[in-house]
Amino acid sequence: MNKLASLSLALCFAFVTSFASADGRNDPVYGEMIRANEKSMEKYAQSKGKGQPEVIHYQYGFKADIAKVLGTTSAKGSRLAFGNCGVMPAQMNYEDSNGNIKILEYVMLPNNCTNSH
Question: Transmembrane segments in this chain: where (predicted)?
Fold first, then answer.
């Protein structure tokens, strides 16, 4: 691979990786959905007598200790997802093997993209 191709690949990877560690709460489009999920999980944890949920920002190679999936965020069918084909933040709520509630935040491409060009 020549130097220009290597540099282009490295820059592309750096650009995509910067999204992977982004904080979805500050996202201008999906932030409200992310904040609502976190608030809902805080209430759930209180109702179960558990500690505050820990928000974990996914990084490549992360090994999650998932005993039970409690739910995921989804913009599918909402006004947020209509026509949006870009990267979006998402969260998976789960309990680990010790019963602690965790919120794993990651980025994804919507599977209901209506803009196909």
Answer: none
* pTM for the whole structure: 0.70
Q: What is the dihedral of CA 31, 90, 74, 42, to 10 degrees?
A: -70
Q: Which helix (H) or strand (E) holds 56?
A: strand 54-57
* Lowest-confidence region among 1-5, 28-32, 71-75: 1-5
The correct answer on CATH 2.30.140.50 for the domain covering 3-108 is: yes
| Structure tokens given for 109 | 């491409």
Listed by start position, the domains of the chain span: 3-108
- The residue behind tokens 């820990």 is 54
- Asked if 24 and 30 count as a contact pair (C-beta separation under 8 A), the reply is yes
Residue 30, phi then psi, degrees to nearest 5: -100, 0
**Beta bridge partner(s), residue 106:** 90
- On whether the CB atoms of residues 27 and 34 are closer than 8 A, the answer is yes
Number of neighbouring beta carbons within 10 Å of residue 100: 16
